[in-house]
Predict the structure.
Amino acid sequence: PAHIFAVSNQKGGVGKTTTAVNLSACLAELGKKVLLIDLDPQANATSGVGLDKHAGQSLYDALLGNGDVASLVQPTGIKGLHAVPSEVDLAGAEIDVARADRYLHRFREAISPFLAEYAYDYICVDCPPSLGILTMNALTAADSMILPLQTEYYALEGLSVVSRLIQKIREQGDNPGLELGGIVMTMYDARTNIAQQVVDEVTGHFGDKVFETKIPRNVRLSEAPSYGQPIITYDSNCAGAVAYRALAREFLERYDRT
Amino acid sequence: PAHIFAVSNQKGGVGKTTTAVNLSACLAELGKKVLLIDLDPQANATSGVGLDKHAGQSLYDALLGNGDVASLVQPTGIKGLHAVPSEVDLAGAEIDVARADRYLHRFREAISPFLAEYAYDYICVDCPPSLGILTMNALTAADSMILPLQTEYYALEGLSVVSRLIQKIREQGDNPGLELGGIVMTMYDARTNIAQQVVDEVTGHFGDKVFETKIPRNVRLSEAPSYGQPIITYDSNCAGAVAYRALAREFLERYDRT
Ligand SMILES: Nc1ncnc2c1ncn2[C@@H]1O[C@H](COP(=O)(O)OP(=O)(O)OP(=O)(O)O)[C@@H](O)[C@H]1O
Ligand SMILES: Nc1ncnc2c1ncn2[C@@H]1O[C@H](COP(=O)(O)OP(=O)(O)OP(=O)(O)O)[C@@H](O)[C@H]1O
Ligand SMILES: [Mg+2]
Ligand SMILES: [Mg+2]
């Protein structure tokens, strides 16, 4: 069965979408079958892979037990990478799902029948900057959580909240198998003291949970989304592309069961 | 009475907290009495002004009608700047407030009696990266919304959502006086094409709603929070301090009634 990973961090702007889009694209380039699911009403991952946003084209209905996932899946410009788009109305699902039965399990129950029918190697879920209902649903369905961490002080503050949350999800039995799959340092600028301090502090706490690959700050990564392209097609040889390819290889060393 | 402004943008990591902390500090430096309210469970603004986070030290109880605001208010290291801290349990208020009567007006009703007793010139509310219950409460109480906008493509995508939201809040009668007070360009790097494209696009749409002062990308701004200081005490002459002082003067030209 596919390995499901949620790219999540309640701190905003740390590179969740950039990591979800580019790690997924690099895994597909290495021959894996990948499905990227945009679970953020901002729908940045949707435009990041060049898909349009349309009202009704999100997991909203599927989370409430209506509609099916298969009809939402679209190909992207990358061979082996499919995506489920999002749009702003998905925000309304937070309230509706909160009031439904088994409200933490709606996402898992929506995608399970689909995953039983279609063979993917990896399911990547891009989460919004919060620990609300949508993120909690992703973490309840995921095998692992990938945590992008901007090498900045404010981003460091939220780290303890995340560890406690994973502990809680495991212990309450909603998803006993959830693990912190890895921490990805993003927007790393080796010239600044603050970046080095954050790396030292996080590696001290989390040891080998921290991916060795650091994603450098690279303006090409922030330009690519305006062309609806992952970095490997926008600028295949830039520092951002090199880093995400290295991250994908490191990721497969940890998770590839084949 | 005090002018209440909410610093808000559902896009994450655009400089909401950095703007709330530093604009408030610069307004106080210009002789204004300012109260900074941290309405984000991440509590970054709390540590940004050097306050500690303690369980129970947030507006959680006051939003549910228990407890008072005055006991939460603390002085900061800046003369004229007080702050109401936050902490992670405030996240639980989203669900409790959603189920309460007049759930959009809880924040306004909590702070009104306090503001009638204590004279402030400006109330600055730092919002989380979402359009959930806490942010909606801030916008229902606010006279104006200040929108920090990172000069990046993904940040641009969310802008139309914000305008529609303000329109809705005004028309539904929850806060007919709410206006978009201004858009602040943040992390501006004049050397990149994307920054210039975003500025042109936003100025084209929003005209003089866009503050002339642009906040440059400046590493000192990201270092200051690790010392619990606003930029004007951490490094008074750096580009970040110069920019936020200019923003404070521009802000007073728009709002100062005295
Ligand atoms: N390594 C990098 N170098 C330069 N820019 C980057 C890098 N990673 C991300 N960015 C840019 O920084 C901004 C924030 O990144 P992104 O939107 O991926 O973060 P996020 O965590 O998904 O944000 P949100 O919390 O809003 O979901 C974006 O404009 C993105 O293009
Ligand atoms: N002009 C700037 N130059 C350099 N770094 C900046 C600047 N403004 C903010 N930062 C840094 O960028 C990161 C994001 O800023 P900040 O946390 O203020 O954004 P936010 O919108 O409040 O995030 P969230 O959505 O999580 O609340 C922080 O680490 C901050 O220190
Ligand atoms: Mg994102
Ligand atoms: Mg913030």
Notes: Residues 188 and 216 of chain B are 4 Å apart (CA to CA). Chain B has a mean pLDDT of 96. Residues 239-255 of chain B form the longest helix (17 residues). The interface with chain A takes residues 10-14, 17, 42-44, 47-48, 88, 91, 94-95, 98, 128-132, 150, 152-154, 157-158, 161, 192-194, 197, 219, 222-223, 225-226 of chain B (CB under 8 Å).
